[in-house]
Amino acid sequence: MVDSDPASCRAAGQAAAPSANVACSQSKHYVFLIKGSMKDRLNIILVHGTFARHANWCKENSSLHSMLVGEFPDADIKVFNWSGFNLHRARLRAGKNLANFVARNFAEDDEAPLILIAHSHGGAVVQYSMRSETVARRASGVVTLATPFFVVEARSFTPLLYWIVRLFALQAISLLVLAMVAAITLVGIYSGDIVERILHSGGFINLVALPILYGLFKLLKEVYLGFIASKTVAIAERLSKTQLGLFAELCPPSISGIPLLAFAPVGDEARRALIGTFTLSRTLSNPVFFICGVSLIVPYLVLWVMFRPDYSADEIMTLYFWLGLPAAFLALPITAGIALLPTLVIPRALHAPVFGEEGIVENFLLSITAAATPAAWEPVSEEVVKIKPAFLSLRHSSIYEDKGTLAATSTWIRKTLDQGSKDAARITTPAYSIGPFASPSQLVDFVLPPDRR
Length: 453
Known about the structure:
The chain is an alpha/beta fold. The protein has helices at about 5-15, 15-25, 65-70, 90-105, 120-130, 135-140, 160-190, 195-200, 200-250, 270-295, 300-305, 315-340, 345-350, 360-365, 395-400, 405-420, 440-445; strands at about 40-45, 75-80, 115-120, 140-145, 150-155, 255-265, 365-370, 375-385, 425-430.
């Protein structure tokens, strides 16, 4: 029972603590309302973005800080500073440090709501921090300002391995054709003019080449390509384990039960940079694939050179050993290396300004893109705001000075607090999937039937 008699309350408040407890415990319980009651208490953490350590918008007297103090005078506002490096590892480390920051600065029995406000890549830091029960249990809401939310997907590299195996098959055909030419040339060395005329007779070669080619290719398919396929499968299995580990580490968690207010400014320069990156990467990949395809013609150009009628048998054999065989063997690794450029080198260079520096392995195994709102966060409220930046300012960096954004943030926080107790948060890791080519062992089926393995 709560007594509202002012006189009784004042008397109890003026008495010494022990005597007050005795006097007030006879038949009634008293609740003393002081400034900053449980209903009005609020904890707020501000998280800056990339390259913005000790950001001005987090400091006192900034527009956002002043709004928070004015609207929520009893709020305990703290600033979390991290390195601000545009690196995935830096954001992962910052997420763990943010969880420790919450544990250090707020008592375990502190039941005041916790609101996290983050700008730009600071939103990713908050996402990663949700992996900690300390943050997930306490957080009552999250506000993100122009955050590009990462979308991490496992690349299906198995089709690429299929393509590599097919390249080896094409290389085998090239070697077989060269071997056939060498065999006929060797016969020509000891048979004089008759075989030499046969050597330069395209009709005879057209008649004989197909059955010889089929027989030799069938032999190599069982030995040469079977070996290549088995090695490729072993590599694919190791890559799958590495991919699973990277996916679990870099993929933001799925969040349910923690309300999110995501602001996306119209004409956001960072978002435009992301779109430009994708476009440029695709544009640069086209000539790379063209060069890759042209390089496969090299062994056949060598064959064309070897059939010149003014070359003697000795010269043809010299070309075969010193030009034909090296060209046939080197065409495949050179082609494969060039083909990997769009996946490895180009994204590594272009992702640095917007996504953070990624390693070659990460680029090969994972596809990392960005979205205005996270795909696996419920509930989400998206606010698309039009911002008129100040002179020499960017919309991406002016969002925390925008009056409409500040007003919407205040209204949303108050609405979230008025809803009372929140549902228990559920934090899970998104399912790891790489589509229809999930089993690398399917590569063996392309080369060897099950009864011949």
